[in-house]
Amino acid sequence: MKYRLPLRAGLMFVSLLLVCAVQSEELFDAEGYRSSQYRSPTPSSLDGVQTLDTPALQQLLAERPETRLIDVYRRTWLNERFIEDEPHANLPGSLWLANTGNGNLAAPWQRYLAHYLHQASGGDLRHPFVFYCRSDCWLSWNAARRAHALGYRQLYWYRDGIDAWQQAGLPLVPAQPAELPGAFLTPNAAP
């Protein structure tokens, strides 16, 4: 009986901690981008973006070879450079725009994304882009949504990404992320 009060107080304290932990980790930011728990089940669609499976992606690439594949898998960025902490391979012909699928995207990364999309499209907002990462990965969802916000209109989301490509027995190639120009790291830099 003498432990009843401390036990109850302890249980209440643990319950309070759990509630605070759940509330402190918001899944989406104020703009609607997924900002945590990126490797978790994704929705089946995204407004303004067509979702593709592997056969549909292969058909798109055959019919529209100008389509640009955009890999948004994360890469550690430290001391103004990418750190190759593990090898990465992606779909042949991809442009790897590392970290552009993060939810709370800092200005340098926004400029990085805008710059390379503009460069790859020649400024044509109807140029086809396919965004991907891995299966159950919100990074590609965020990046495709962000490209739509930039005005691009021929957007595709290869929802299961690299994992589905590999499961289909299709080749991957070693990859390095596109360079983040040093000028983008300064405030007010233009893409």
Summary of the model, kept short:
Keywords: Signal. With 191 residues, the protein is an alpha/beta fold.
Describe the protein's architecture and organization.
Helices cover 34% and strands 14% of the residues. The strands form three sheets. The chain has a five-stranded parallel β-sheet. A two-stranded antiparallel ribbon has the order 3-4. Strands 5-9 form a two-stranded antiparallel sheet. The protein has helices spanning 4-24, 54-63, 107-121, 138-149, 161-167; strands at residues 50-52, 68-71, 77-78, 81-82, 89-90, 94-96, 129-132, 155-158, 173-174. It is of the alpha/beta class and 191 residues long. It has a single domain (50-185), classed as Rhodanese-like domain (Oxidized Rhodanese, domain 1), CATH 3.40.250. The chain contains five helices and nine strands. The chain is globular and about 60 Å long.
Task: Describe how the helices and strands are arranged.
Blueprint: H1 4-24, E1 50-52, H2 54-63, E2 68-71, E3 77-78, E4 81-82, E5 89-90, E6 94-96, H3 107-121, E7 129-132, H4 138-149, E8 155-158, H5 161-167, E9 173-174
Parallel strand pairs: 1-8, 2-6, 2-7, 7-8
Antiparallel strand pairs: 3-4, 5-9
Helical coverage, percent range: 25-40%
Helix/strand/pairing class, anyone? alpha/beta
Number of domains: 1
Series of H and E elements: HEHEEEEEHEHEHE
Q: Would you identify the CATH architecture?
A: 3-Layer(aba) Sandwich
Radius of gyration over all CA atoms, rounded:
20 Å
Report the CATH C-level class.
Alpha Beta
Q: What's the CATH topology name?
A: Oxidized Rhodanese, domain 1
Oligomer: single chain
Protein name: Rhodanese domain-containing protein
Signal peptide: 1-24
Domain Rhodanese: 110-174
Keywords: Signal
